[in-house]
Amino acid sequence: MAVMTTRSCPCGLPGPYEGCCGRFHAGAGAAPTAEALMRSRYSAFVKGDAGYLLRTWHPRTRPQRLDLDPGTRWTRLEVLETTAGSAFHTTGTVTFRASYRGGSLQERSRFERLDGAWVYVDGDFLD
Ligand SMILES: [Zn+2]
């Protein structure tokens, strides 16, 4: 039986983590679009990387500290809609569904480009 040695990135894109969200987590580059940043933040939730989540949070809305619930098992991310958020924009939104064991949530997140790098501002939960 074949053993899978390469796991795809938690964000749902087909490539391995190291070449996807992992390089942003490692500080080897900044997410080029609001969607890429959102995906990398989801992956940071999966990996329990609170430092990355705080680093990519707008200083205006960033919490003092972030306690991730280690009991939450994130299982899937689906990006449902994006507006703006490319290299040509300074703001953007990403609407997504994040599934975890036992449920899912939908949020429309707002992002801004701050000194060239995308950061998370805030979001609205959707029913
Ligand atoms: Zn990824």
Distance between the termini: 43 Å
Helix content: 10-25%
Q: What's the overall average pLDDT, rounded?
A: 94
| Chemical compounds bound to the protein | zinc ion
Q: Provide the structure class.
A: alpha+beta
Question: How do the strands of the widest beta sheet line up side by side?
Answer: 1-2-3-4
Succession of helices and strands? HHHEEEE
Q: Hey, roughly how much beta strand do the residues contain?
A: 25-35%
Major sheet summary line: 4 strands, antiparallel
> What is the tally of beta strands?
4
Low-confidence stretches: none
In DSSP terms (H or I, runs of 4 or more residues), the helix count works out at: 3
Per the principal axes of the C-alpha atoms, what is the gross shape? globular
- Over the alpha carbons, how many angstroms does the gyration radius reach? 14 Å
